[in-house]
From TrEMBL:
GO terms for biological process: carbohydrate metabolic process. InterPro entries: Glyco_hydro/deAcase_b/a-brl. This is Uncharacterized protein. CDD domains: CE4_u5.
Length: 317
């Protein structure tokens, strides 16, 4: 399983501007997305594109008209994106608008367009409320509906899942979310845990992170399809360790195929915005591993919504 947090600058705006060293990654999304879609089509692979609602807007005017009256009242005001300076639309502001890319995703077979909230909303940030999240979710659904998109899955920004909001997700027709890996190093953000997570990307420190189908449905009524691995982008100084990284994830794919479980890779399109050739070459090698086990073990490729529906029907068990 593959999911992408499609956000461009909206997911980074509280950490960096558009003019710094990461600018090329953000601009490179315009090349990376079509090339990823081409590869997914080649391998007949499904992917979930969890998309910030702002990106659906064709213009600053449409974004403002689509925004909820009730906005997040974060204690840390820097978290709110509503004061972000914007240009007129996608042509002159490729960092904040992406309807043309969204249409490419929508028109590619086996791709699911899902939600990453309307405003890259932080459900655990101090100050925000359930009513504000409900308003954000409503705006996300409405702007997507104007493009013919209906959400069934959500990926929470910064993986901030607030269980108190599960009932409103169900009421909105959502089926599932992407949770964190169940292993301890992924359940916190201490320096030690971050170090273990980095090592775990290259060697097996915390297990294969596969999920049994029976573990997907939750008591709340939602389904949780946890992430297994963040597909870290190519780093030139670490290129000699890429063989370890490939072997690590290939073994997890093999384990999922043998046990008939789920392995879930995720990343951001902007991670592939620089060193695009190298990142796509690595992705191709992973998809070749998947194709091998699809042929030998009947391994299937599904998006998050497809997997949730299959789990609820008991098909994967």
């Amino acid at each position: 399983m593959i999911s992408l947090d499609f956000e461009i600058h909206w997911g980074l705006r509280d950490q960096m501007g558009t003019g710094g060293p990461y600018r090329q990654n953000l601009l490179g999304v315009r090349e990376a997305v079509p090339r990823m879609l081409e590869m997914f089509a080649e391998f007949e692979v499904a992917a979930t594109w969890a998309t910030v609602g702002f990106l659906f807007a064709a213009s600053r005017d449409e974004l403002e008209r689509s925004s909820p009256a009730l906005k997040p009242s974060y204690v840390d005001r820097a978290l709110s994106p509503y004061a972000e300076p914007l240009r007129l639309g996608e042509e002159d502001d490729p960092f904040h608008f992406a309807p043309s890319l969204i249409e490419q995703v929508r028109s590619t077979p086996r791709q699911e367009l899902e939600t990453h909230t309307f405003s890259h909303y932080y459900t655990l940030a101090p100050g925000q409320s359930a009513a504000e999240f409900a308003a954000d979710l409503r705006s996300a659904r409405e702007i997507a509906a104007r493009r013919g998109v209906e959400f069934r899955s959500i990926v929470f920004p910064r993986n901030q899942h607030n269980p108190a909001y599960d009932p409103m997700l169900l009421d909105a027709g959502l089926l599932c979310y992407r949770g964190l890996p169940r292993a301890h190093p992924y359940r916190g953000d201490s320096a030690a845990q971050r170090l273990v997570r980095l090592g775990d990307a290259y060697v097996d420190v915390a297990g294969e992170h596969t999920t049994p189908w029976a573990a997907v449905p939750q008591e709340s009524g939602l389904c949780n399809v946890p992430g297994s691995f963040f597909l870290r982008p190519f780093v030139p100084r670490l290129r000699h360790a890429d063989g370890l990284r490939l072997r690590r994830m290939a073994r997890a794919i093999r384990g999922a195929a043998l046990r008939r479980e789920i392995v879930h890779l995720w990343w951001h399109p902007h991670n592939f915005g620089r060193h695009t050739d190298e990142n796509l070459a690595f992705l191709r090698r992973l998809l070749e591993v998947f194709a091998q086990y699809r042929e030998s073990h009947g391994m299937r490729s599904m998006g998050m919504t497809g997997a949730a529906l299959a789990a609820l029907r008991g098909e994967g068990r």
